[in-house]
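Exercise 7. Predict the structure of Transcriptional activator protein from Kitasatospora cheerisanensis KCTC 2395.
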Amino acid sequence: MPPPPPRILELIRRGAEIALNPQPEWLAELDAATLAGETRRPIADDPVLSAGLRRVNRANLLRWAAANATAPGVPVPAPEGDEQRLMARDIVRRGLDEPALDSYRAGESVAGRLWTRIACSLTTDPEELRDLLDVSLRSISAFVDGCVAAMSADLRAERAALTGSNHADRMQAVALLLDGAPIARARAEARLGYPLAGSHTAAVLWVDDLDSDFAQLDRAADLLASAAGRPPILDVTASAATRWLWTAARPDPAALRAGLDRLPAVRIALGPTAAGVNGFRRSHLDALTTQRMLARLASVQRLASHDEVELVALLTQDLEGADRFVRRVLGPLDGPPAEAVRAYLAEQCNATRAAARLFTHRNTLLRRLAQADAVLPRPLTENPLEVAAALELRHWRGQD
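Solution. The predicted structure, encoded as tokens:
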């Protein structure tokens, strides 16, 4: 095929420069498409996997644009490097190979639509537009084909590396238990090296920033074991940035909070303590619910247990509705009066205990409660349940 004429190459270069500075709504459309659909739901529901996939897809978009801004029309090689290999390893560990590859094709569809919008802004000549789209869309398709081939190769390499490993055995046994599949308890215990008959508290440990020091996760796992009194513990690497743990005793929250001060990148979500195989499963699923709620709310809280947030997790399935609820119930209530009301309700309307909780004088607490009543849309005595729920919502959203 003859090379495109200089005019078409110049239009591609100009379009690529626009694509190098994508509008926020373009990136939002790309993110939504690559994580949409039932097959990709397990990735979309995991804050770490979804962040990694968004990052890879955005990087691919910018890679193609940067290459064409420099050398328009020249084939763009597929990316190579540690970031994609880490993503492949995480995907294989979770058995999500096909959904991950699907996301590339979904991203290609969005990129093609966005590029067509850019191309239509560059020329009004129908023939130029036809040639521009023909050359550039072929280039995008070839680039995505290369990305899919490179990821497929990384996935095959990771599957081969994991086959027969202790980690693969443990992860497979965990997956069977979490799916409720029939597996003998004795067989599962032998593969896991962990007793299933007693009580379990599940924990999800993760880092939000994928450029963080992942070694902090090792120290956090040791912290969790220490805070639980070092009972039997099961530690599974779910991804480079995520660990799943189960412990036979519940960790002390105060010890965890103190230890997390030395591990600024790590966050921990705890499930409830429950017994047996069903408890093993239920505690983990509730820990995942807690992790997803923190991600959904963009919460700054670094330690949360399902017992604390179960109501908030249910109420925030509809974030816009939850925000309207908070505004309606609390009105302008904020600051120290809001803190006083939250402590007062948490202490079952006992002013003395609430004052002690806030390390303040009882008279100060009563004065702040009076200030709160003055601004609440309805008096606290008439509406304590809704006020408590609204304050919890705002607390976990990091808005107090």
